[in-house]
Amino acid sequence: xxxxxxxxxxxxxxxxxxxxKFGVDPAVANQIASExxxxxxxxxxxxxVIGGGNIFRGIAASARGMDRxxxxxMGMLATVxxxxxxxxxxxxxxxxxxxxxxxxxxxxxxxxxxRRAIRHLEKGRVVVFAAGTGNPxxxxxxxxxxxxxxxxxxxxxxxxxxxxxxTADPMLHPEATRFDTIxxxxxxxxxxxxxxxxxxxxxMDNKLPIVIFxxxxxxxxxxxxxxxxxxxxxxx
Length: 236
Hints:
Radius of gyration: 17 Å
Number of domains: 1
CATH superfamily: Acetylglutamate kinase-like
CATH topology: Carbamate kinase
């Protein structure tokens, strides 16, 4: 029996990159799509928020002198490219998918309307939310928290390269230890780079659990949805 009925999966743009320097690796997109298809076939309603860092990073560009708002809008458009790539990969597996964007572009996607998004989920379609929140200065992490509240998701599943939350970056500090569960406040107090502080605060205020897990390990997404101890759980 699944532990969650409606989930919001947060993917970074880098997740689609594979071993490439930038862009979308179709093989990686297909692997992620098959994991999503697996949970969808079990009757779990799945929504996805995807970043754009594999194509364009707003924060990095603004640090190099570009206007932050302009850079962020460019980053939002990058997430639409990723959303379309993921939609294509899912539809090749016969999973009906809808891309909903916070910035209107009717030729490629539907505008985000909360009730329509929920209706798609109820009909068993996978929904991909693109263009972040539609506002500059907000990350796609915050967009994930916001959309999760709006569709009344049971949990945010954040797929990363590591298998949970550590006391320090395990890639740089091999001695770092992993948390099985951790409170929102501890994440904020310790400044752990799980999601940005706005997203964590939003989840804390609305008591929405977050599971951080390794997306690269096949089958982990299904295990996370089933409530098995995969990665780290952030909760009250």
